[in-house]
Structure formats: C-alpha cells, structure tokens
What we know:
alpha/beta, nine-stranded mixed β-sheet, five-stranded parallel β-sheet, 19 helices, globular, Rossmann fold
Amino acid sequence: MFADALNFWNPWWRGETGSLEGLVDRPCLQEVRPWFERKEVLAVTGVRRSGKTSLMYLLIRGCLEDTQADNVLYVNFEDLALEEATVRHVIEEHERLMAPEGMRYVFLDEVQRKPGWEREVKRYYDGSSNIKFVVSGSNSSLLMTEYSTYLTGRDIAYEMFPLSFSEFVQVNGISIERELDVIANRLRLQGLLDEYIRHGGFPEVVLTGDEMTKVRLLKGYASAIISRDVIGRHQVREKGKLERLAAFLATNTSKDTSARSLGKVLKLNTATVDDYLDHFRDAYLFLPVHHFDYSLKTQYVHPRKVYCIDTGLRNAMSFRFSEDIGRLMENLVFLRLMRAGDIYYWKDDKGEVDFVVKEGVEVTRLVQSCYDLSEAKTRRREEGALLRGMKHFGLERGTIVTWDEEGEESMEGKVIVYRPLWRWLVEDDPAP
C-alpha cells in the first residue's frame, strides 16, 4: 500500500546514493555517533530546517558502509502519501518489500505527526534487539510529556540548532584551530559575522548565494514554523493575534516581556499569551530566559526575556536590522551560551547582568553583551552590574562581549574580560 512512497524515500534500495552525496559534515555528527551505536532510541529535535534530516542522511551514509542497503529504512512522515501510515505499517511494508535480515536501522523523520508513535516504537524496542530507531521532530515536547511515559530509559535525546558561527566559518572555508588562525583571519571573520547576523545559520540559507533567495527562504521558514508547528499543531484559534505576537517578539528580542503587558497590547488574556509563548518555545522559534532565583516561584514572578532561535529568521520577521544591532548581538551571545548550560538573567535595583550560566547546580559564568562601551555612562552601567553580579554569585571573573573592544581589567578585586564578538564566538571555551 505504501510501497511507492518507501521506494521513493529509500533510493539506496535501488543502488542509488546521490541523495547522500554533497552533505555538509557538522561537528554534531561526531557527538551523535557514539549514541547511535547504542540500543536506545536516538531522538533528534530542533527547529524546522535546522538540519535534522541531513543528520539522519549522514548517519544513513555511515550505515551503508557496512550494512546491507535492504536493512536501512528512512521515512518522512510529512509525505502526504504516508498520511494514513503508522509506524507499524511502514515497518511491516519494509519487511514485505525487502525481507531484511540481521540488524536493521529505522529512521522516522517528523515522527510527531503520528499519534501513538511512541507506543509502537516501544513495542518494537522491547520485543526486538535488532532494530535501531532514530526519530526526529520539530518540537521540544517530543522529548517531554508526549512519550516520556513510554520511552523513559529507552531514549537518548539530542537537540539540533542552526549552524553556530564556528560552523558557519568552517562552511565558508576558514579553519580555526589555534589562536594564530583567529588573528590571521580577523578581517574575514568580521565580514562573515556581518553576514551571519543578517541571514543567520540555517544550512540551506548559508549555502545559497543570492541574497533575495536567502530572504525568501527565511520568510518561508517563519511561515511554516508558525502555521504548521504552532497554529496547526496546537489548533490555535486566534491566528492573527498569534502572528502579531510573533512579529512583536521578533522586533523586541532581549527586552523584558510579561504575559500581562503582551495581553494588553494584543487584547488577549494572560493565560492565552502564556500558552502562545509556550507554543513558540515548543517549536524552537522563541526561547525564554527567566530571572535567576533559587526559588522557582520568584523566577516566574519577574518578566522573562525572549530570544529568537536564529538572527536571520528574526530579521525576516521583524523587517528591521541596522538599528537593532545591539539586540541582534545579544541574541547571538545567548545562542552561544545556551549550549553551555541553563541560562538566566539577573538584576538588582541598580542594574542587570544579561546572562547567568548555571551548569548543574553551580553558577559558572556571568556575561554582559554591549555593542559599544565608548560612552562613560554606558561603561559604568555595564561594569557596575557585572561587578555586583560577581559579588552576589561569588565569582572572580566576568565577561563583557562587545563589538570590537578587547582586554582585561582588575576592578574591586575582580577581573573583567572584554571580548569582541567575532573572536568570542569562535573560541573553544569563551572566557568565563
């Protein structure tokens, strides 16, 4: 019944591997490969078009080096030809068509479109030791409530994001392996940073040369995320208001945002706004940062700050760029830090520290983002808040990421490190 669709998605059954050629290797492949070799279900999530399918293809390409092509099954559940298919249907059809023997590898792309998929995967997982499952989804809840009851202890989760600036630099032919490489490529790195801030790190956008095509792709991504992964998935009724909320958040990234104030602007009740913000987080479109406090209740009393998953996507949604360079820069600092641990902001009655990084139970670093420190008032504000934050958290060093200032300074028994953004984003371990 589904033979034509499966044959289409698995050209290696016919000895054709063209779809697996020319893929861009990403560092995440090396991170994922050890997990791929374990029995647990590998669950890959991330924003739409961030490279989840390409990662699957890279894993498939590796499989085919020492595995019979008949034993590798890939299914994209966004294919309308598979609208009536379940996980059980496609596995049974694969068995009927190819009669695979021995270890099998089953890749289920956008699996969240199939209600009950987790129960079917669990049944195969518990009943067979010769099927390795890799599943993907464009929503963070794939790793949470929807299947935690069924697959707890049977899964390994990996979140995938658009290209980091380091990956973007690598794709553009610059290898950064040591400090001399950073110095030698300073001008190129600064030029690439401008491009990265403007158009972001979605792989297809990065590999497209024409600027208008980049913009069209990004607008298409934004539309698909909102219509499919937010409105369609959560059956949102107030579509127009949700779209206006998305545009507002894109234009006001890094600003304090409360559900109550947003509700007044959009004429929505606070609970509905909270739901919409959760939907955006679930789709990896806008990510919240809460005020740091050891009390969860106190954390959520304060307004949250919201950042976009990609600056190119943010620009496509907000229609603004040059006047928002400071906010875009702060957004990039957030995107780098969120890979290091849990991210918060902290403030007292005199000022604010943009980012507090907590790894495990310990606060390990404080980072300020400031485009220009040339004005004395701005410098006093940023340094003062950082110093108070270091004293509050018992840290000896803090970082201010700027556009082009670099150095270190001792103040009040603490050390403030100044790093230009273009350098800080490619350092292996940004200064704490």
